[in-house]
């Protein structure tokens, strides 16, 4: 008999509704509760998804403790609330899938990972891009040496808003591209740097919040990745590339039908000249599928097998928070390089 996973979703705002949608459609998941501090959000999802009357709709997440058969909790709330929510859920004996970042503090992240291991529970972070078919295929291509010796990477993540009031553009946007670079390279940076500009919220109670941030990640191999982040730019871009000695691999999320491209080409030396040769553009075929659905399916599979996610465990989330924390230190020090070697 197939086990039914009884699951609660905490937070049904812009992203939480998509998590709810996917878990409602999962064949072995039963949604038993939806929590949101805004009653209007609860009313909206009840009407939108015709939720059954036996599903608990509440503004008080502590009421989940009254559900003794609860197996799992999905958290899609502001990052500042994650620590208390996750630690309670783990102590109640529930597996947890949390929206990124895991928390805003590396010490808290490590504590949560250790508690999950002690309780023998799954703690997974929704780093959705790691489950994107284009990212998965890109990693495989780079491992085959398709673009030759890796030289450097670049990424641009810009749009006109939304402007956050709790974190800056670094914490809002950078985690996606850092996660992809780490995944494609199979390692984490050893030195990081960041510089930024503040235009909109110079007197924010959370200290000035940078609207523009430039990030440099340096890896042990000498490979460097340069990331441009801005929520004050109407030129919306979601583009990441890795350049090698024989070509470049580009992931462009804005090209919905052809997001992954291999741009081949290299130089042939003729006396004192460098002549471009073997130039070719190839669209890389990828599997179809919603990345978030893959996240949700993976979380349930991890629960059934009682095995942590290899792609996006709590420890992966912790490492990314450590990198963002170091980048914040660099940003506040005017771009000072911060070493991450352990």
**Radius of gyration from CA coordinates:** 21 Å
Per DSSP, the total helix count is 8
With strands numbered from the N-terminus, the spatial order across the biggest sheet is 14-13-12-11-7-10-9-8-15
Strand content: 25-35%
Distance between the termini: 47 Å
Low-confidence stretches: none
Please describe the biggest sheet, giving its number of strands, its sense, and whether it closes into a barrel.
Answer: 9 strands, mixed
Tell me the structural class.
alpha/beta
Give the integer mean of the pLDDT values: 95
Order of helices and strands: EHEHEEHEHEHEHEEEEEEEHHE
Helix content: 25-40%
**Overall form:** globular
Number of strands: 15
Detailed description of the structure:
The protein is α/β, with parallel strands linked by helices and 342 residues long. It is 31% helix and 30% strand. It has helices at residues 16-25, 39-48, 82-91, 106-119, 133-143, 169-185, 291-305, 314-332; strands spanning 5-10, 29-35, 56-58, 72-75, 95-99, 123-126, 150-160, 191-197, 212-218, 224-230, 232-244, 247-252, 260-270, 273-283, 338-339. The strands form two sheets. It has a nine-stranded mixed beta sheet. Strands 3-2-1-4-5-6 form a six-stranded parallel beta sheet, with helices on both faces. The chain is globular. The mean pLDDT is 95.
Layout of strands and helices, then pairs:
Blueprint: E1 5-10, H1 16-25, E2 29-35, H2 39-48, E3 56-58, E4 72-75, H3 82-91, E5 95-99, H4 106-119, E6 123-126, H5 133-143, E7 150-160, H6 169-185, E8 191-197, E9 212-218, E10 224-230, E11 232-244, E12 247-252, E13 260-270, E14 273-283, H7 291-305, H8 314-332, E15 338-339
């Amino acid at each position: 008999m197939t086990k039914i996973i009884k699951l609660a979703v905490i937070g049904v705002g812009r992203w939480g509704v998509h998590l709810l949608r996917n878990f409602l459609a999962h064949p072995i998941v039963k949604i038993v509760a939806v929590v949101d501090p805004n009653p209007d959000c609860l009313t909206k999802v009840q009407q939108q998804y015709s939720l059954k009357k036996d599903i608990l709709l509440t503004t008080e997440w502590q009421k989940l403790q009254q559900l003794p058969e609860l197996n799992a909790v999905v958290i899609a709330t502001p990052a500042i609330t994650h620590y208390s929510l996750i630690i309670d859920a783990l102590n109640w004996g529930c597996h947890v899938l949390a929206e990124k970042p895991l928390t805003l503090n590396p010490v808290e992240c490590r504590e949560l990972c250790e508690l999950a291991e002690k309780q023998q529970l799954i703690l997974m972070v929704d780093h959705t891009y790691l489950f994107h078919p284009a990212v998965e295929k890109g990693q495989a291509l780079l491992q085959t040496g398709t673009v030759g010796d890796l030289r450097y990477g670049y990424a641009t993540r810009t749009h006109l808003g939304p402007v956050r009031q709790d974190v800056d553009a670094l914490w809002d946007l950078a985690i996606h591209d850092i996660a992809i670079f780490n995944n494609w390279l199979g390692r984490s940076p050893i030195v990081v740097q960041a510089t930024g500009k503040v235009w909109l919220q110079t007197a924010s109670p959370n200290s000035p919040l940078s609207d523009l941030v430039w990030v440099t990640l340096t890896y042990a191999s000498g490979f460097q990745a340069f990331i441009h982040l801005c929520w004050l730019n109407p030129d919306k871009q979601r583009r990441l590339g890795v350049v090698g000695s024989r070509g470049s691999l580009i992931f462009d999320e804005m090209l919905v039908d052809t997001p992954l491209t291999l741009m081949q080409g290299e130089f042939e030396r003729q006396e004192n000249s460098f002549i471009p040769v073997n130039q070719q553009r190839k669209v890389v075929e990828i599997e179809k599928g919603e990345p978030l659905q893959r996240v949700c399916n993976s979380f349930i599979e991890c629960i059934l097998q009682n095995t942590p996610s290899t792609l996006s465990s709590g420890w992966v989330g912790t490492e990314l928070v450590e990198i963002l924390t170091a980048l914040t230190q660099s940003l506040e020090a005017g771009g000072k390089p911060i070493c991450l070697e352990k």
